[in-house]
Batch of 3 targets.
Target 1
Amino acid sequence: MTDEHGRPEPPLEGGEAATLRGFLTYQRATLEWKCRGLDDEQLRVTLPPTTMTLGGMLKHLAYVEDYWFTEVIGGEPEPEPWASGRPETDPDWDWNSAAEDYGDELRALWAERVNRSDAIVAAQLGQAGAAALSKPHWAWGGQGRVCLRWVLAHMIEEYARHNGHADLIRESIDGQTGE
């Protein structure tokens, strides 16, 4: 079932993995809705005093998807454009460089990374079932370990926080509001 904005509702009854994935999918769909229909310039609008933009949010969340799912859970090397694009002198490169990108490119990058993340999670769950939620994975350059359950919960929090920002920015652009 989807709501009036096209967001799939999380399951009301289901296992832990389905519930976590359902809430993450809902939060991702909320970001997509907040960015839907905006042109390149609108995706670059800031709401002072912050320098955040919806385009920057798309690129940042594409990076976060890649870090947590591709690198940490999937165990794969850092993919492009992060591997060679991010200068060490700009720790906010994912946010800042989005001003130079086209909206369609940002949306495609984000959607591609979400799809890759979903495939990695499905593969992990397909191999080990619910036990995959507890399997430890190295994170933070080998400085600590997290499990898939933690990553899914963290990503729900990450999207929910940024969706609050997205709601305010979108309202400043065209007055559109909603949860």
Target 2
Amino acid sequence: MAGEPGNEAPNARSDDLAARLLAVSELHGDFVLSSGRRSSVYFDKFRFLADPALLREVAGRVRELLPAGVTHLAAPEGAATLLLAAVALETGLPMIVVRKEAKAYGTRTQVEGYPEPGAVVALIEDVSTTGHQVGRAAKAVEAHGCTVACIILALDRGGADQLRAAGYEVEAVVSVSSAE
């Protein structure tokens, strides 16, 4: 779990938040993950993203993990944009939504919002098992001329390792290991 070593109060708060986030979102059964893998454990992100009090706490913890110098917040399109909006309200930082691909109409861009080249971006993801979706979003942000300062995962179930291997700085509100 992320936290500052030797700083008892934040760790205690993080442990409590982690316990509550896991209690709400961890499901057991037979599930197919977005990666196509099967798992007996599934973390239902909507169970913490749809709870205003818990969402506010997770957003506050994400805010604490942001490195200095970040000018924009980003998330892959989808449920992570709920957390993105909550963190933006906490920080006042502008948002970027990264589409899976550019649309053939409208602005025809994959990176939506107002990021100027040179913007320093923190990418936010709700749950990550492989890091694939947020990694793809990071590459799109970089192709837009921005710098990805870090990737922050609300719940890391293994994706952080792949993202770090790809050269990204990664933090997580909660990390769980998969025995599968």
Target 3
Amino acid sequence: MPLRTQLYGYHADHGKMVEFAGFEMPLWYRGIVPETLAVRNQVGIFDVSHMGRATAQGANAEHFLNFVTTNDVSSLKPGQAHYSLLCNENGGIKDDIIVLRLGLDRFVIVFNAGNREKDLDWLEAQASRRSVDFRNVSDETALISVQGPKARATLQRLSKTDLSGVPRFGCVQTKVDGVECLISGTGYTGEDGFEVLVWDCPVSEPGRAEIVWNSLLASGKEFGMEPVGLGARDVLRLEAGMCLYGNDIDENISPYEARLGFTVKLTKPEFIGKEVLSKQKAEGTKLLRIGLRAAAQGIPRPGYEIVKDATSIGKLTSGTFSPTLDCGVGMGYVPREYATDGQALGIMIRGRRLDAAVTKLPFYDTSKLGWQRKT
């Protein structure tokens, strides 16, 4: 039987439900296009409680996390977070995660829903060898994401904490409409926004999550807030050039192939996969992840062939229609020589070639859209 989050009741009443990563989740509410555009232009709210969450505490917690992740946990101060990777010994990506530092010896780790069991088993085994208090809190907490240019204003109305002091990848313990929460300046849409972790909220007692969810919906109403399902969430992350685990990254793909090398800190004394990744950094990789923007009508889909002239050079790992750009976009892996911006390539759609060009990620103009927007 599929699992359910604390907010299942709302989703079942208002959304189109599907099974995803073992959970019954909303695919959409009003529709993928209006939900995508609401996040890009106003604000949207997502239930992401299906994702995995764990805490790591104790004197060895920093050393443990520095060993199992690629980024440098020692660089985080309390109240800071970063994007990172778990890699295997061959440098392949086991998962992409967020690490949040709450105190000198206390951390929260957020990982993908589809990797819950795999990540927990692996992290628990690593932690047990280092005397770290590692706890799975996935089913004892809820996680709600508020994203878009009006996200900060929406959340500020419900918190006495001055959120202007919480930067991107900052985090703070506070109350949201009286409910104890951890707020972090994170999300997977490319937009400004926050993820709200609701403490002490098991699935069997969802009241605290329901208070936060309903209060956020009411607070964001005047800004045009939309509840957002999995469909728009996937479009938003693809428009932002962000990877989906299991499609764009997996244990056979390295951070350097995926252009996630910024998460790899080779100056650390040791971490799992360091030896292989050090060699890759020095020698380069044969394949690189690219973004492709279609030049005409057509919707790229995962698995479609990428061609140069009449020669197949790779396959799409993600693809969809972008409501923001009003065209098809996709990502995939090609030999390095074809990965330059502006390179003319093609996407084969049911025997028809769709012209496309390699495009710098994210796909949109960051001066006008996303968390860096100037207008």
